[in-house]
Amino acid sequence: MKFSSEFRDPAKAEALLKAIERTLDGMPRRPDRPIHVMEVCGGHTHSVFRYGLHRLIDPRIEFVHGPGCPVCVLPMGRVDDCVKIAERPEVIFTTFGDAMRVPGSRKSLTQAKADGADIRMVYSPLDALDLARANPSREVVFFGLGFETTMPSTALTILEAERAGIKNFSMLCQHITIIPTLRALLAEEDNQIDGFIGPGHVSMVIGIRGYDFIAELYGKPLVVAGFEPLDILQALLMVLRQLKDGDAHIDNQYARVVPEAGNTVALDAMAKVFEPRPVTDWRGLGNIAQSGAQIRTAYEAFDAEKKFALLAADVPDPQVVKCGEVVKGRMKPTQCPAFGKECTPQNPIGALMVSSEGACAAYAQYAAPRLRTGRAVEVADA
Amino acid sequence: MPKRLPVRGETVTLAHGSGGRAMRALIDSVFLDAFADTAVDEKDDAALVDFDSSGGDRLVFTTDAFVIDPIVFPGGDLGKLAVCGTVNDLAVAGARPAALSAAFIIEAGFPVADLTRLAKSMAQAATAADVKIVTGDTKVVDRGAADKVFITTSGIGVLPKGRDFGAHKVASGDKIIVSDAIGAHGAAVMAARGDLKLQTELCSDCKPLSGLVEALIAVAPSLRLLRDATRGGVATVLCEFALAAKLGIRIHEDSLVVSDPVRGIAEILGLDPLYLANEGVFVAVVASADAALCCQTLRALPGGAGAAVIGEVVDDYPGEVVLVSPFGGERLVDMLDGEQLPRIC
To answer: Hey, which residues 244-303 in chain A have their CB within 8 Å of chain B?
Structure first.
């Protein structure tokens, strides 16, 4: 399969790993800790674990798993909103698959479906719009979840609903934006992040200039990267070379997909339909100003919050899990007191355990504690 | 032969489940007609099956219930699945399938023509597996009380004397063999549900495995363990093997045979082919010395073209399965929790 095999070439991976090692050899070693490189995006976290990159890279570097998984930062109160709407008898509630299992304070969407709510998984918001066309007597609600990656498609769906005069379709908007969150992370004084591997799909939409403040204000490098193992290793090398040279700028490893200015057609559609929400709640991170989107008044007929008169409930995160500390890079998943005990992939409490892109689920799934200590190293050498 | 009653109407109704004339007409025209070549032409509630135990052969008995949405998918349908599923459970126990039963729970309103198609496809699969459907039952339930048709099949197979495999025989150094390319059934059914709107060339691997298993046993007396990789995929079977044998299993990602269409849909949806269901693929553990001949034998047979050695049994990490990526990175292969959900981005 041509479209991916060339980005998984073992010989090239080995060459990159060697180059990473050589670069590190030319740098003074930090006495206190390894170099922390945050991969912002959940897709990167998933690839790191799926291909075992965290075990292949030099121990002088450590990946810190960032907040870029929209499912992981979905707060309980918002899941409650989804359930509340989905349980109305006239509603067909539609969502991307991976939001189904996220625990709410009462129940997850999977549980609500088992209890009789009409909840359907879709692969695109346009599928939800088709459902609305096919079921004129029902109210079809789409759960618009995601970063700028999914925003263009939901914006275009709302524009299409308006053009076609479809009245029984609305969207519960849970779009979030990555830049304000990176700002909030970096503003914390004790953050221990030395450089960033920047999100690929988000940048495909927004371009790369929005990250400039990371280099200019905080003096840290960021390299936008693709999701294949070679992409990630190459981006890591690019970050390290900047650190070695005492340089900090925004670079683009994923130029085959990410244009510097982003996608203007997508950005125009988003600007037409969405506006910044004053405050958005992130699971694990709390409220962050201007970090989410809401539907503009001009399109409020398609806004499920208005249609169903929702009052956003603020539900605190469960105390036992430390998702926030993990997302901020201060704690490894295994250092959370609930990891593998109360909070497991079978019974996730924290959102990082729910999605396969969540750092905790990745740890639990691909690197059980037994494997991460001792003998496994021999296997790698064999 | 008694005169068969014609079925009236185009859809199954509650009357067809009432035990009276309508039911007899349905059984006559749908099931007895389709199973004429494979089943005994009797409508008694029990069938006689001959069995000679004097040589030390034993009976193997299994049952399985089948529900699937959609009931017709590329490469098969619910009927074929219901026969292959039970035949394969017998085959991987080392038994030669001898007789099947089939029980139908039908939702009122289901088209008779579709039921006939399912029955014909069951008959075809039974013929392919060289097994007879010898008895059955039909129930009709109200609309909404079932989803179209549910089929339960039970099967009896004969286990020849001396065939004895199990986890106790597995030893470090043994090889893991998979009988064909993986993940095709799970991927095909997902695509056939229609909400993906993807044009694909996916085709389910649904097929009886009894022939392949007999061929394998003939060349590999060292066969240690055998299981068909249905729900939960190859990954789940490997985890079960490792737990049962109390040894580790190491597999190599570049040895896994995955067709391009399956790989494509898995990439798009963020699914792992190792966890996708198969309905015509088995996983076997054999002695290292026999592995090459096993693969060669399977590859020469229909349904075994993708046979490959994918890994080995190791002393390290007992009870766990580790996958080695093409550049040496490794990860744990764990059992699936719940179903695989497509990822958002």
So the answer is: none
Which residue from B66, B1, B65 is spatially nearest to B28, judged by alpha carbons?
Answer: B1
Residues B122-153 as b/e (b if ≥16 CB within 10 A, e otherwise) read bbbbbebbebbbbbbebebeeeeebebbbbbb
- Torsion angle, CA of A165/A169/A173/A179, rounded to 10 degrees? -50
> What separation in angstroms does the CA of B242 have from each of B90, B169, B225, B335?
22, 12, 11, 11
- Helix axis angle for A359-366 and A42-50, nearest 10°, is 10
> Exposure of B272 by Cβ count < 10 A (0-12 exposed, 13-18 middle, 19+ buried)?
middle
Residue type, A174: Q
Task: Tell me how far the alpha carbon of residue A374 is from its chain's centroid.
Answer: 31
CB contact under 8 A, B343 and A145: no
Helices (H), chain B: 21-26, 33-34, 78-91, 112-128, 184-192, 210-219, 233-245, 260-269, 288-299
Looking at the DSSP assignment, which residues form a beta bridge with residue B176?
A: B285, B311
Q: How far apart are CA B162 and CA A334, in angstroms?
A: 49
Put simply, whether B330 touches A (Cβ < 8 Å) is yes
DSSP annotation of A346 reads: S
From first to last of the 345 residues of chain B, give the pLDDT tens digit. Answer: 455 666 767 889 888 888 788 888 888 888 888 887 666 555 567 888 888 989 999 999 999 999 998 999 999 999 999 999 999 999 999 999 999 999 999 999 999 999 999 999 999 999 999 999 999 999 999 999 999 999 999 999 999 998 988 899 999 999 999 999 999 999 999 888 866 666 678 999 999 999 999 999 999 988 999 999 999 999 999 999 999 999 999 999 999 999 999 998 888 887 899 999 999 999 999 999 999 999 999 999 999 999 999 999 999 989 999 999 887 778 889 887 666 766 655
Contact between residue A58 and residue A20 where contact means Cβ atoms under 8 Å apart: yes
Distance of alpha carbon B234 from alpha carbon B288, whole angstroms: 20
**Given B195, B250, B337, which is nearest A123 (Cβ)?**
B195
Q: State the count of interchain CB pairs (< 8 A) between A and B.
A: 117
C-alpha angle with apex B134: B130 to B136, nearest 5 degrees?
A: 130
Of B264, B325, B342, Cβ closest to residue A51? B325
Quote the CA–CA distance of A74 and B262 in Å, as a whole number: 31
User: If you write DSSP's letter for every residue of B117-162 in order, what string do you get?
Assistant: HHHHHHHHHHHHTT-EEEEEEEEEE-TTSSSSEEEEEEEEEEE-TT
**Exposed/middle/buried for B199, CB within 10 Å: 0-12, 13-18, 19+?**
exposed
Handedness of CA A139, A145, A148, A150 (dihedral sign): negative
Taking the model in full, what pTM does it have? 0.81
- Please choose, from the candidates B80, B298, B300, the residue with its C-alpha nearest in 3D space to the C-alpha of residue B206: B80
Shortest CA distance to B119 belongs to which of B26, B184, B189, B206? B26
